[in-house]
Amino acid sequence: MGAPPFKLVLLGDSSVGKTSLVHRFTTEEFDPYTSNTIGAAFITKEYHSSTNPDKKVKFEIWDTAGQERYRSLTPMYYRNAKMALICYDLSNIPESFEKSKFWIDQLRINDTSSDSSEIKIRVVGTKGDLLPNKPTPRESLEAGTETSTEEDATNEELDAVNTYCLESNIPHFITSAKLGQGISELFTSIIDEIDESFWDLYNQNQLEQERIAKNGQSFGTIDFLNARFKKTETSKSCCS
Amino acid sequence: MEPENRESSSDSPSHDNEVEISKENTKSSPVSKVLLPEGKKRNPSYVGDPTTAVDMGNVSTMSMASNNVSPKMNVIPAQKRNIPRSIRSDQDSDVASEFQLSHSQNGDDDIVNNESSNVEENVEENDGDDADEDDEEDLHNILNDLIRHEPQALYTTASQSLAAQNVAPTSSNASTILDYNIFPYNESDSELSENSLISKYISVSKNDSNSVFHSKYKQVFVLSSAGKPIYSLNGSDGVIMGYMGLITTIVSTFEETKDHEEIKSITYDDCKIVIMNRSPLILVAITKIGYEKMQLRKAADVEADIDDQSILSRQLDTLYNYLLSMISKPMITKNFHNRMNYDLRKILTPLDFQNLDSIVMKITYGISIKEPISTEDTRNTAPDIGFGVFASELLDSALECVKLTNTTRTKLNSILLSSKKVKIPKPAEDGPSAYQTITDSIPFLKASAASDINGPTSPSATGSYGDDLLFAILLDANCKIMSAMKPKHHNLKNEDLKILLTLISNQQHLTRHTKSEEGILDLWIPICMPHFNCNGFLYAFVKTIFVKPEDLRKTSSPGIPTTIVLLSSSKNSFFHMQEVSKQIEFRINQKMPSFTSTLYQELSTTTISIFRDIHVPQIKHFIYKSRSSNQFVSSDIEEFSRGNGTTTMNILKLVYFYSTLHNTRATPIRNTDSSSSSGGSTGNGASNGNLLPAKSASESNGSSSNSTSTGRNKKLTYIKNFGRNGENIICFMLCSDKYEFYCLCDDRTITTQFLINHSLKIIKWCEKNRKRLFIDAGAVF
Ligand SMILES: Nc1nc2c(ncn2[C@@H]2O[C@H](COP(=O)(O)OP(=O)(O)O)[C@@H](O)[C@H]2O)c(=O)[nH]1
Ligand SMILES: [Mg+2]
């Protein structure tokens, strides 16, 4: 049986390394010559949790360009997205993280629905290999226990990011597309957080499909769900 | 290169058609004007009216000039020639640069034109009903007359120009990029290897060094009217900053003159400079390359070569068009509104600068070469070949299409049409839509809003996926067009399409990086098509698929990449376009296995081989342009360069030969039917070797005698280039109202008789295969 789709959007300043991150995730390669993204790219990739192969999703990823001139398009990308990865550049923390905060605010402003349906956010530091000290295991970062004393300035900046993420209750990851570090951890953690019911419903739906295909008829769950869908749609139409 | 060389002849370069009304005041004290302190003469008036008559001025000036100025004017008055190294008004500067070009650099191509007046008298009658053999006979006679009359006039001799530069011809047989004096160079350069020459003079370099910057043949700047640098082909900000003030000063100086005349071109030392004012932007191109200092000609124009553009200004048009495509005119205007100091770089991206570099390099050299970032950086040094981009620029934005059988092309067209029309299934029967509702019903997974635009549950579910689809294009691996679809009442101009294709070809490594279903990448690119709608954006869906017939599926062969481009009018239609692309892919790759294999086979050999396809191997390379469709094909570059130097060097040569050939004024082949009415001997046009005044020629011919396969209003050009290694390349052009044919061959292996014979053979072959070579209307809905 196929994997249920899971929409995800990458946001962040231009050149922080979003495309490289996705490229590493989908192809396990690092291409130092990737050119900038124009507009946006849509990539799909099936992936399963490294801890539980049954938890498998088809990631549908929007890699956006991040430039100001494409701003008007971004709502389309995060509409329907379950998750936003807000990327900033570890070799230029102050500037790129400032942009990240903008995106976080942007998502919260635009996400007017009830709290429970909020788009999930991850803050992702990229180019970890350029940090003066090697990428720290994410656990320590998440726990805000970054203790290294070398390169004080960078650490102070990182501390500020950590503090911000802790206060906003947003998980924070450090990755390097170049070295391939932290990326499978990131995506595994995304899958691990998805409730089992996600797959149950999907499978149930697939069975329903098969049954419809056999009977050439539709009733039961589908009708119910469609009716429900229409309700959702009208109630949310103001957001488009 | 030095001005003195120009004095050697009173032969006139053919600059008459670009003569503009000169301005006395600038002529009298040109230098002092330029040296005015920056800002002192700044014209502040454009703020309120950014698109004033500045642009328009030229047009009217031009037409006045071409009406009033006799072609005889092209004999340059001596006193004008004595004004070197100064900024002159357009008339003077064009004179100077043309002059310089034809006498010191690539010799005497322009003299061909002067020849033509003599030749004309001898021109055989060419009745429209002549059989092809007579055609050939005639052409051969004309060509021989032309050559016999004054042979050296047709040659760009290496020895002459070498003597002028005090450089001894090398005895070495190795072909170098300095052959044929394509580029200016110093004596000391003979020691340099090809790679060093290229990196010294040609490669793009954003280096901080002044000397690196100054040695480049080509410079291009884009700056704001206030003098803020936006783009530069070479040099860092530090290097170029000083020139920005100078340029704005020059521009505003000219703006202040009573006619608000726009400065068009300046010749300074060995440079030709063209400035284009598109307030709030200024675009500048500077070249030291001889073939770029020529005036642009539309060789086959029945309108007797009337055109007002220099090669450089057309290049700037292309760059400006790129900027408009990316950020649109309204956005530029908006951003500069009330803040002339705005920095446009804020809304441009590094990719835009890469694209601008690549466009400039390809339209200048046919190849894009960057300075390597580091020594182990081999990939960036691999030249990015763009001969097609160059040829398209040269041939008035003609498009290059893929050779395909008519059946296959028709089939592809119908695939585009039927994919557009695929209906959106009703939600209740549609699996994914029901699934959508499930995920939306799970609180954690639910997104901010249910899908209203994306995917199959759209409210417009009664329509088709392709409802917003305006244009669809299928491209082959080299970004040439295989098939296209358009609405009945709309067209995409080639100028717009060119930008889109450049954009896509520069992104191809992205879309092609994966060869499995997994990790497939679709692009969604907002792009303004300035000639289609300059105020709004279209959205381009771009996806590369791999044509792979069934028997190849099990192998590891990736198949042949084919790119689907769907232009939509709605920014929210991505998922619908994706659905259309899936339909196209299904129809190409799955629905009919026999079609898939046919397509695969045809795509495996899309190059046109003179050797294999036409069997006239003495012709080394050709370009054939169909004038009615404004499309061209060219033969395999490999066949031209085989066993003779690097691809880079050969492309540089091709660019040089074709530029010279195209921009040399052609010799008309007169048609007796019209000779009486046009009175060639009475008008200045004829004595100047111009084509007969076009109107009278075509009127008198009417539509009655239109049966020669090769068309009417023929012209030809013949240029012989002596290379240092004994290889003499003949450039030959033959055009009519139907086609333009350009070819190159080696003097040692072909006679004039065969040149004509083979050329006609190729022309006939192209004509016969036109359905394979060109796209007519494409699919229309
Ligand atoms: N050292 C290093 N460089 C990276 C890494 N990821 C991206 N880059 C470089 O950063 C630049 C911008 O990357 P890109 O993925 O295009 O950024 P985007 O604009 O956010 O998509 C490129 O030159 C990449 O090679 C990384 O993990 N390490
Ligand atoms: Mg990117």
TrEMBL record, chain A:
SMART domains per the UniProt record, alphabetical: RAB (SM00175), RAS (SM00173), RHO (SM00174)
GO MF entry, a single one: GTPase activity
Region (Disordered): 130-154
PROSITE patterns reported for this sequence: RAB, RAS, RHO
Coiled coil: none
Keywords, comma-separated and alphabetical: Nucleotide-binding
KW Nucleotide-binding (keyword) present: yes
Lineage: superkingdom: Eukaryota
Pfam family name, one: Ras
NCBIfam families referenced in this protein's UniProt entry, alphabetically: small_GTP
Protein name in UniProt: GTP-binding protein Ypt52p
Source organism (scientific name): [Candida] railenensis
TrEMBL record, chain B:
GO biological process entries: autophagy; protein targeting to vacuole; vesicle-mediated transport
Domain (FUZ/MON1/HPS1 second Longin): residue spans on this chain: 468-584
Biased composition (Low complexity): 674-711
Free-text function comment from the UniProt entry: Required for multiple vacuole delivery pathways including the cytoplasm to vacuole transport (Cvt), autophagy, pexophagy and endocytosis.
Annotated compartments: Endosome, Multivesicular body membrane; Prevacuolar compartment membrane; Vacuole membrane
Organism encoding this protein: [Candida] railenensis
Polar residues bias (residue ranges): 58-71
Bias (Basic and acidic residues): 1-26
Any Pfam family: Fuz_longin_1
Protein name: Vacuolar fusion protein MON1
InterPro entries reported for this sequence: FUZ/MON1/HPS1_longin_1, FUZ/MON1/HPS1_longin_2, FUZ/MON1/HPS1_longin_3, Mon1
Family of the protein in this entry: Belongs to the MON1/SAND family.
Topology versus the membrane: Peripheral membrane protein
Biased composition (Acidic residues): 121-135
Residue ranges, annotated region (Disordered): 1-135, 668-711
GO CC aspect terms: fungal-type vacuole membrane; Mon1-Ccz1 complex; multivesicular body membrane
Domain FUZ/MON1/HPS1 first Longin: 218-301
Keyword field: Autophagy, Endosome, Membrane, Protein transport, Transport, Vacuole
Record domain FUZ/MON1/HPS1 third Longin: where: 619-769
